[in-house]
Design goal:
Shape: elongated
Number of strands: 0
Distance between the termini: 62 Å
Number of helices: 10
Largest sheet: none
Helix content: over 70%
Radius of gyration: 18 Å
Number of domains: 1
Amino acid sequence: MTATSTATRRWLERLNGSRHMLWLLALFSFLETIIVPVPIELVLIPLMALNRHRIWRIATVVTAGCLAASLLGYGVGMVLYQSVGTWFIDTMGMQSAYQAYQGFFDQYGFIAILTLGILPIPFQVAMITAGLSGYPIALFVLAALIARGIRYYGLAWLVKRFGPEVERMWRRHALVTSLVAGLVVLGVALGMRWLAKIVM
């Protein structure tokens, strides 16, 4: 075992033993959604495996932290885009992703937010775009809740079912799984949109 993995394991043990673990996980989720480029799954999987008795509570607080960050990002897009929003996009190097997402969002709205929330693409782009466009905040929150709920509650179910082995599976197949899930959601959503047009 390397010194880095030993230090990481000790850090996780301290976090697991902390009475503030749930609050800290909510904070980590908030920071990951806003700016931290490290997937929170690296922390979540071992902690969920150690705390199966409260695994759904962990998924809930992480989802809540993500939603709080999403609302902040939405607010930046709605009120502070010309200053904070453009600075953030430039600093994070998201110019191309932001420009590419514009047309997708303009055409599909809810579906675009939902898809981006599942795919391994920075969600900040969806937050700022939704806020800037004046997209209904209730629909934005619903899309973010569904997308991140699938991500975190789905992970909790996998850990509940397979235990710590999920970490190895996630490291190996994270990108493929996320892409498949995102494409399935996109396909279902587009199908529902098409049916709605026919009915109307």
